[in-house]
Design a protein that fits this description.
Largest sheet: 8 strands, mixed
Oligomer: single chain
Shape: globular
Distance between the termini: 60 Å
Radius of gyration: 24 Å
Strand content: 5-15%
Helix content: 40-55%
Number of helices: 21
Number of strands: 12
């Protein structure tokens, strides 16, 4: 594709995304799915530029308004991005905005005037408000400022960079060294071990793991290091009976099975049959099918679930959440999640936490986890739980993870027993984990 054609594709993608409530990933997938003729290299560049428009949305909008430009559509933002980020001049843009087939229309006089105004500028400017500088909606900026204070710009700068590709090595199929050798045999280079997760590998972006022998043989799974750390904190042992109550696609379930060396019983539950079907396939590939049982539940009040009161040694609640800890991978979330959404999530999380607690046996542990950075979904919810449930005591993360780095947890939990991870401090997705032990039988609720 010509450079102009790739730019036209980005503009079309961005405008399509702004006019739908669909996830950005789904918009991209649908766009390329109907245009099979677009090659892999072109797809990568188009996708990268599209997501950069989203990552730079607030600052691009600020500059367009600052220049008195009345349009805020994909074309205007693309022009601003090419000038502010790529430092292109009018002549450069005229070579791309040619009006030829598949390319954007030629530049209008007012667009040339905009380019002149932006020339020599960068995305950042001292006059930008805090919410604009950090690429956050005003309400989210205010909430996160309470958590990170003066460190918020640095934190959000890390969230605004694309994540690396993290893998978990499945110990049921081999060792970390086995995985590295297999990947290298398939031509994969620049493989690094993750700093915290003992079975993790980190690779550059843009690699297709699904075609590698290591993936086909079940030796590796794609999983961010934060999720791998969460699995380690479950502290599963061979022979245990474990409930993964919000299993989804089963990534953490598989990690738990590997820690149990395939010996014991894991009940992987979810309300979506399609997710569990995928989890079942992944379990077979990983060699963990014998110890994992998938079960569809209606909700946290499911009759079968209620019959398992006080039954499990470990209950993992990786609850549905805002997902704002995954902004490196899903930058559009910040513009699609609102305060009402977070409040609705909190109500659901509270119900799931209550139901999960009732399933834990005496001496067993409850693990509450989110990929959210919102205190409302994490610390505040946990504090309410601790007030209400005197039959549970918090287990300090340092007791489970004695080699935890000094940077764990990050601001917001320094004097607390739970875990907070962030891309700025740890190079992972934003993640929260709290662990509780049931000290008394209590009353099933």
């Amino acid at each position: 594709m010509k450079p102009g054609a790739r730019i036209a594709a980005v503009i079309e993608l961005y405008d399509g995304w702004t006019h739908t409530r669909d996830d950005a990933d789904r918009v991209v997938s649908g766009y390329f799915g109907s245009r099979r003729y677009i090659g892999g290299g072109d797809r990568r560049e188009i996708s990268e530029r599209f997501y950069n428009l989203i990552r730079h949305q607030a600052r691009l909008g600020w500059w367009l308004a600052e220049c008195g430009y009345e349009f805020q559509d994909g074309r205007a933002r693309m022009i601003a991005e090419l000038v502010l980020k790529d430092n292109l001049k009018t002549d450069d843009l005229e070579d791309r905005f040619t009006g030829e087939q598949f390319c954007p229309e030629i530049l209008h006089p007012n667009e040339k005037h905009l380019i002149n105004k932006l020339s020599g500028k960068t995305l950042d400017h001292d006059g930008q408000p805090g919410a604009v500088k950090t690429e956050l909606p005003k309400w989210l900026y205010s909430e996160l400022l309470k958590l990170h204070h003066e460190n918020l710009p640095e934190e959000m700068a890390a969230y605004n960079k694309p994540a690396k590709l993290d893998l978990r090595v499945n110990r049921l199929r081999g060792t970390v060294d086995d995985a590295i050798k297999s990947l290298e045999a398939d031509g994969i280079k620049n493989i690094k071990k993750t700093p915290y997760a003992p079975n993790g590998l980190r690779l550059p972006l843009g690699l297709n793991m699904l075609v590698t022998a290591a993936y086909k043989d079940g030796l590796i799974e794609i999983q961010d290091e934060a999720s791998q750390i969460c699995v380690n904190i479950v502290d599963a042992k061979p022979g245990m009976t474990i409930l993964d109550m919000c299993a989804g696609g089963g990534g953490k379930t598989l990690g738990i099975a590997a820690d149990m060396r395939g010996k014991g019983r894991i009940l992987a539950c979810d309300t979506h049959a399609a997710r569990l079907d995928n989890a079942r396939k992944r379990a077979r590939r990983a060699g963990a099918g014998d110890c994992i049982q998938q079960r569809i539940i209606s909700d946290e009040r499911d009759t079968w679930l209620r019959s398992k009161s006080g039954f499990f040694d470990r209950v993992l609640l990786d609850v549905p959440c805002s997902g704002l800890g995954t902004l490196r991978r899903n930058p559009a979330l910040r513009w699609r999640i609102g305060q009402r959404d977070v409040r609705a999530m909190m109500a659901e999380q509270s119900k799931i936490l209550k139901a999960g607690a009732a399933r834990v046996t005496r001496g067993g542990r409850l693990i509450y986890a989110t990929c959210s950075i919102m205190p409302e979904e994490n610390e505040r919810l946990i504090e309410t739980f601790m007030r209400d449930r005197k039959d549970f005591k918090p287990v300090p993360i340092s007791d489970i993870w004695p080699d935890a780095p000094k940077s764990v947890p990050v601001p917001g939990g320094k004097d607390k027993p739970w875990l907070r991870l962030s891309p700025n401090v740890h190079g992972t997705d934003g993640f929260f984990v709290a662990v509780f032990e049931r000290t008394a039988k209590g009353k099933a609720k």
